[in-house]
Specification:
The chain is 48% helix and 11% strand. By secondary structure, it is an alpha/beta fold.
């Protein structure tokens, strides 16, 4: 983290104007990151760091950032081993164009970034879970009709940290356990994994990944019994039904504009924004 945090933070703060602030939540780093953040905070008026926040997990840190935010809207969130291309102001402009056609507050999900009214994020916060907390978060937003997902070209780039095979396995296993902790039912999960294995049935995963889900699901379910449990929206205790709902929310910018009954002003978004966010086809989304 200490090797990448300056590049990560400056990739955001240097593309913003005075309408924005950047809030960094530090949960007690001891690797030298704090000294870098203190220097950057002195250099950039738009940067504000909350030190020694003492959150237990990423979900709590995200909620903390929502509470600390001073604006009416919140954009999130960047890992400290990634950096953004120039895209944030264009994404915000596109959101406000979509907002005209949406009845109420809504959450616009991109790949690596999202935006929503702060009040919505305070009303539907993350729940204190481990890896995969965002899946539970998205389920509850979709259930109350508040989430749309936007297809676009890549806007974030890794600064070099790659998880080992063991780390990827551990994260994947914990993510699966968190799915059960957040209210998914076991047998529909098994059925979904079997459908992904079938030659013509899988829509999201390669067959071997479906097999991994099938084999690991019983162990992940048992692991989930040791942690806190929450209720999922009744319609989404079946992961297959949730995956179908996710696909229905996922659109290109033009498809979303048609869905909301608005006409996009690409000139306002600018040529760089259009190059990123105006794509021809929505791909398969794996939440």
């Amino acid at each position: 983290m200490v090797e990448t945090i300056e590049m990560s933070v400056t990739s955001v703060v240097e593309q913003l104007d005075d309408r924005f602030e950047v809030v960094v939540i530090d949960d007690g780093s001891t690797d030298g990151s704090v000294e870098i953040l203190e220097r950057l905070e002195a250099e950039y008026d738009r940067l504000r760091v909350c030190y020694d926040a003492d959150n237990d997990n990423l979900a709590e840190a995200r909620n903390h950032s929502f509470e600390e935010a001073r604006g009416n809207y919140v954009l999130a969130s960047l890992d400290t081993d990634d950096q953004y291309t120039q895209c944030i102001r264009e994404f915000v402009d596109l959101y406000h164009q979509f907002e005209v056609g949406f009845d109420g507050d809504f959450f616009l999900l991109g790949v690596g970034l999202y935006i929503a009214p702060r009040n919505l994020l305070l009303d539907v916060p993350y729940r204190s879970l481990g890896y995969g907390e965002d899946r539970d978060f998205f389920r509850r937003l979709i259930a109350n009709g508040s989430l749309l997902s936007l297809e676009h070209r890549n806007v974030e780039y890794s600064l070099g940290y790659d998880r080992s095979l063991r780390e990827r396995f551990e994260v994947g296993f914990e993510t699966m356990a968190v799915q059960f902790q957040s209210g998914l039912h076991f047998w529909p999960y098994v059925r979904w994994a079997c459908e992904e294995i079938r030659e013509e049935g899988g829509q999201e995963l390669e067959w071997y990944r479906g097999l991994a889900h099938l084999v690991l699901a019983p162990f992940a379910y048992l692991r989930s019994l040791r942690g806190p449990h929450y209720e999922a929206p009744p319609e989404f205790t079946d992961i297959g039904r949730y995956k179908e709902a996710v696909r229905r929310t996922h659109m290109t910018a033009e498809e979303m504009a048609d869905y909301l009954g608005v006409e996009l002003d690409w000139e306002a978004v600018g040529p760089r924004g259009r190059a990123i966010f105006d794509v021809d086809e929505a791909g398969i989304i794996i939440d």
